[in-house]
Design goal:
Blueprint: H1 5-14, H2 30-44, H3 52-59
Helix pairs in contact: 1-2
Amino acid sequence: MPKSMHGVMGEFKRGQLHSGSSTGPVVGNRKQAIAIGLSEQRQQGKSVPPSMKALNRSHGSSAK
């Protein structure tokens, strides 16, 4: 079940947040924990800022 950002950051702080599945390695990077939380919020359909990947894709490549 997807969690709130508060829950995800709590798990990160306690050292219980895993990347991928619950058997994956423990997340040690704060930015990675935020990315996991935002991803879960998007899956729930909550309003969150677009991902950097989506932002880069929308701008396209412009010749200078």
